[in-house]
From TrEMBL:
Species of origin: Vibrio rumoiensis 1S-45
Membrane topology of the entry: Multi-pass membrane protein
Transmembrane segments: 41-67, 88-115, 144-162, 174-194, 214-238, 250-272, 309-330, 351-378, 384-401, 429-445
PROSITE patterns registered for this protein in UniProt: NA_NEUROTRAN_SYMP_3
Key word Transport present: yes
InterPro entries per UniProt: Na/ntran_symport, SNS_sf, YocR/YhdH-like
Any one Pfam family match given in the protein's UniProt record, by short name: SNF
Keyword hit for Endoplasmic reticulum: no
Taxonomy, superkingdom: Bacteria
Family matches, as PANTHER family: TRANSPORTER
Keywords: Membrane, Transmembrane, Transmembrane helix, Transport
SUPFAM superfamilies: SNF-like
Protein name: Transporter
Gene Ontology cellular component annotations, sorted alphabetically: membrane
Amino acid sequence: MASASRAQFSSKLGFIMAAAGSAVGLGNVWGFPTQAASNGGAVFLLVYLVMVVVLALPMLIAELTIGRYGQANPLRSIASVWPNASKIPLGFGLMGLITALMILSFYSIIAGWLVGYLVSPILDLVGLNSVSHWLETFSTERNLFLAFVFIALTMKVVMKGVTEGIERWSSRLMPLLVGLFVVMIIYIMMQDGAIEGLKMYLVPDFSHFSSDLVVGAMGQAFFSLSLGVTVMIVYGSYLPKDVNIPKTAAQVAAIDTGIAFGAGLLILPAMFVAQKHGVQIYDQAGQLLNSDTLVFTVLPAMFDSMGSTGAIVSVLFFALMLIAALTSSISMLEVPVSCAIEELGQKRSTAVWWIGGLAILLASLIVFNFGSLFGLVITVSTVYLQPLLGLVWAICAGWVWNRAKLLEEIRQGHPDMENSFFWKVWPNYLRYVCPILMGLVFWATI
């Protein structure tokens, strides 16, 4: 077990902001709206909301509980619930660290593009058009430079530690993110074509319902809460013992889902506004064009058609995207940093420097071999490793961990937990239902 001097979040609100910040990333503000737009809008939204409750939330509770019980980095926390000394939890724990680092490396490249698109309109306004054009034009040099800038921002926050860095900045950035969302949604709703997108998003057309849609929504719900990559195990380890984990996890999931819902309210109407401005968003077969690069093609084209107002809206939009990316990247870097501090006895600053440097090295490797590595790293880390690890943590909490010790840990924030409806349902649900659902997600991906 960790020492009593180990860092903790200073308040439950601070933890909720940090955990929600980790969960709220490009998967919410980019991935979810894109999936919704490609799968009938409202039908996907409904299935997604169901999957957050029946799959993501129960597993989020499990990861937070494992972390708080261990009060240590993922390697030690996972080993602490294993009944016998074994190399199995160490192997899966290391796999979680590697996955987090892989995600951070490609994430920094995408987030770097956001930095470029954020700064570009400002440079245009002051006459630095050639620099602005360079920031928006795909090239090895530009990709490398912007990825470096983004990782440097991430390192700066994590360097400050749990309370002064992660908690403080998450508590600042999350309200700012919500504020920007509200401003942008109000603005987009006032534009021609927005109502058409709103109808697609909120009025169900069940002809779009399919088994593929269900599996897609299941995977999106899982990924959007940063499950599988040991982030929530790390954050759980910083939780005080008197926190009610199921209640707090529900609050984190609610904020995360609310942001995803808000992203849909923004992006889908914006797509149809773009269409009104002459930007093609669907092909003749009704398939969404540029779904992978929607944020960097359709929406900038719309902003360009709006004149000087478009420049302001563009800055606000990409600021929103960048904040979402940063709150997630912070948690990805904290995973290996927490291990280096406790397992190698390093100072936080030393751990952040060399692990951040390793992330930059991996990002550089991807940038220099973009065609062969970018998609491969994304697929291996998010499509295969993340759901596999999520399945392992569900089995770990549901089958491996002694049931009495699990109850003892979770009742510390809720003394009457044993008699609650939650406790009557959740352990067996985690044991039987979650592995089946996660197995379906994993099976569908392969």
